Each structure stands twice: as C-alpha cells, then as structure tokens.
Amino acid sequence: MLPLLLLLLAPQGCGARYEPTWESLDSRPLPPWFDELKFGIFIHWGVFSVPAFGSEWFWWYWQKEKREPYVKFMETHYPPGFRYEDFGPLFTAEFFDANQWADILQASGAKYVVLTSKHHEGFTLWGSKYSWNWNAVNLGPKQDIVAALATAIRKRTDLRFGLYHSLFEWFNPLFLYDASNVFNTRQFPTAKSLPELYEIVTKYQPEILWSDGDGNAPDTYWNSTGFLAWLYNDSPVRDTVVTNDRWGAGSICKHGGYYTCSDRYNPGHLLPHKWENCMTIDKQSWGYRSNTKLSDYLTIEELVKQLVETVSCGGNLLMNIGPTHDGRIAIVFEERLRQMGFWLKINGEAIYGTKPWRTQNDTITSGVWYTFKPKDDVVYAVFLNWPVSGTLELGDPKTIVGETEVELIGHKGQLKWVSLGEKGMIVTLPQLTPNQLPCQWGWTLKLTNVN
Fold it and tell me: Residue 381: enclosing H or E segment and its boundaries?
C-alpha cells in the first residue's frame, strides 16, 4: 500500500526527478519547443525608463561610479537632493496597453517574449510581497504589469511567455551586508531574491526563466541548484520551462538550460550546446534612451543578418526593445518588429523548426547561411545580397541528377541550376527588378534532394 501511496503523491512530471546538483540539473533535456521556435523578443522596462538616458544601468553609473555624463544630466534636469527613488512615481505607464503590445509582438514573427520582471534596481513589475512600495502596483503604474502582459500574450498570440529576473540588487542593504561578509551570510537571497522567484513562477507560470545579475556571488549563495531542482521537479511549469545559464558567478556558459555566454553573443560557428543570442536593436542600451539618433538603431538588414547567422549556428535570437516610461513601444522599435515579421512571413520556413546543416555558411559565396529540415530532406540557403550577375554560386550543396530541385521562396516555379560536381552548383535567379523581389532584406533558396 505504501509504494502505491508514494506513487500517487509523486509529481506527475515527464521524467526522473532531478537532484540539486549541477550534474543532475544539467542532464535535463531542454524542452524541444525552445529550439523549434528560434526567435523571441526581450523587453527591458522599469524605473530606468524615466531618466531614459545612457543606459538601464543609470542608477549605478550615476550614484556608484559617478560617471560625468550621468552626474551632469542630473544636475541639469533635476533639483538638488533628487534621489533615484524619486523616479518611481514618474514611471507612469499611462499609455501602456497590454493588448496593443501583444499585437505588435505577434506581428514581429517572434514566438516567445521575455519581460524584465525586475532589473538590478530592484523595482518589480508585479506587486511583490517582497518588494514593499518599490513595485508597479504600489507605485508608478499602479497595476500588475506582469499579469497584464501575460494575460494579453496568452489570449491574443501564439507566443510563449517568459520572465527575466535579476538575482541581485545594486543598493539593497541586505545584499550589501552579505557582500561585505564575502557572501558567508545569506540574508538577501533568503529574504528577497529566492522568495521572488518562487512567487513569479507560481503566480505567472513563465515558460522561460531568464536569470541575470549574480553580483559576483557564487551559485551556492543563491541556492540556485535548490531552486532549479524545485523548478524542474515540482513547479507548475516543470515539464515545459526553459532556463538560461546565469545562476551565479562561474555558471554562465557552463550550467543551466541554454547558454547565453555574454550579452550580444554571436560566435559565428556551430556550438555543441543550445545557445541564445540576446541582443539589442539600440546598439548602446537595453532600456529606452530619449537621446538616441537614428544611427544608434540596427537596420532591418542588420537584424535579419543577426537572425540568420544565429539560427544557422544552432542558436535562438532574443531581440530587445525598450519601452518608454509612459508605456509606449517607440515607433522605431515597432517598425523594426513589423519589418522582421514581414520578412519571416515569407522566409520563416527557413527559420522555424530547422536544424543546423553540415556546414553553416557557404565556402565560396559570402553572406549565404544554411539551415536544414531533415524530415523533409530540405536545405535552405539564405543569401543576404542579391547578385548583380543574376546567378548564385553555392560551394557546399552537392546536387543529385534528376532529383535536385531549387525554388526561391516567395516566387513561383522551379529555378534552373547547373551542377559543379563536388564544387557545388550555380543557380540562375529570376530576372526581377528590386521592387519585384519577395523581400528586400534577404532571400531564401529552398534546395530539395541535395547532399
């Protein structure tokens, strides 16, 4: 009777239970959906969106490092004695419309979204019990931003919902106390960080948990392995949740679910472990900056290049936007998102659900990147420059006489090609003017039955 009772009480997960050790946790297979979806949107939003100057690290650069541009900015625009905490009530979000955000995100072609639930400033975008009067319900927006966006995403889109959470907080007295004790005390993770993690997972059930900000403290200080064992074994999202690799000093690019390795990480070659390129449309900042120039933003051509290179090398792209303090997705960000969605509507079959091919980029023609669908025996060659000659030489696909077929996605009909034997093939592209091309920012050849 006792064994049967234990069986009934055991969590109904999809596999064996994981121990709170990296050896056990790292053995957990990454839920397949993450690799299949390929493309997500990061959203950095918080009190730092109020000064909207320099970086989302505004508080640190102004108060701790006392960088001259930040000090001068405050002296010029705010009265003496103004504190960072005084920005809180100014984080108004009066134009925040979760449904509108969800529609824009859906239009981007992204398949998941990661919202900053709390950055290093400690301000939570939900009414956390562990962040009294420094959260979006008690102050500023006076609403649960996380709940609003989670609901809109789940009702109006097919995106998976994820949350970013910073382990440490720059100026939290409990964290500073622990740091002064070389992390031999654990007041901050016990009273603040870990309870918040359990709270957001239980309340919002994110399918991505994007950890960050270890404060130079080891994973043992954060009890990361203990939390992840609960997340994988007993949490409401235990079967589908994916995590990254930022769970304490030394864990990045080594432990966790998928690897991020560094911000804007794009190795340009195939990696043996699933990874993600988290990067920003604004070249200099994750948070919104009101003093940007147009040249500070990546062009759609540059963003498509990032996506194609990343997916060809086995990674996912997490592309960041920074909303304004009043809750708007700035026009330049919306334009880039919709442009990416337009490109993916045509070329998405070369991105979603693909695998890396035996080679990632062409050995003869630069700007050509490959993806692969083994079940369909299809190789995709995404090329970022339309050749003036009207022909595209590919050095890697080996044709099969009487079987190989070539299409340009978005254009009807088969394309003519000539075999170069072991040296590849030459494809004759349609004789089209630029305005007649299916898209202006990158094109895809669909190669069937090639070796």
Answer: strand 378-383
CB of 178 within 8 A of CB of 186? yes
- Specify the residue for token string 């009190």: 47
Burial grade of 64 (CB within 10 A; 0-12, 13-18, 19 or more): exposed
What are the pLDDT digits (tens) for 78-95?
A: 999 999 999 999 999 999
Instruction: Please check whether residue 360 lies inside any domain of the structure.
Output: no
| Residue 90 belongs to a domain | yes
Q: What type of residue sits at position 356?
A: P
- Residue 256: both structure tokens together: 């966790």
Q: CB pairs under 8 A, 24+ apart, for 355-360?
A: 355/314, 356/270, 356/312, 356/313, 356/314, 357/312, 358/396, 359/396, 360/269, 360/270, 360/312, 360/313
Check which CATH number belongs to the domain holding 422 and give it.
2.60.40.1180
Are 303 and 423 contained in the same domain?
no
Residues 61 and 181 in one domain: yes
In this structure, the chain runs to a length of: 451
Q: What does the alpha-carbon distance between residue 163 and residue 89 come to, in Å, rounded to a whole number?
A: 23
Tokens of 145: 């931003």
Average pLDDT over residues 155-179: 98
Q: pLDDT category, 15, cuts 50, 70, 90?
A: low
Give the range of the structural domain holding residue 67, as residue numbers without chain letter.
16-350
pLDDT digit string, tens, across residues 220-261: 999 999 999 999 999 999 999 999 999 999 999 999 999 999
* Tokens found for residue 86: 């005084």
Please give the tally of structural domains in the chain: 2
Task: Phi first, then psi: give them for residue 229, nearest 5 degrees.
Answer: -60, -40
DSSP summary character for residue 411? S
| pTM score over 0.85 | yes
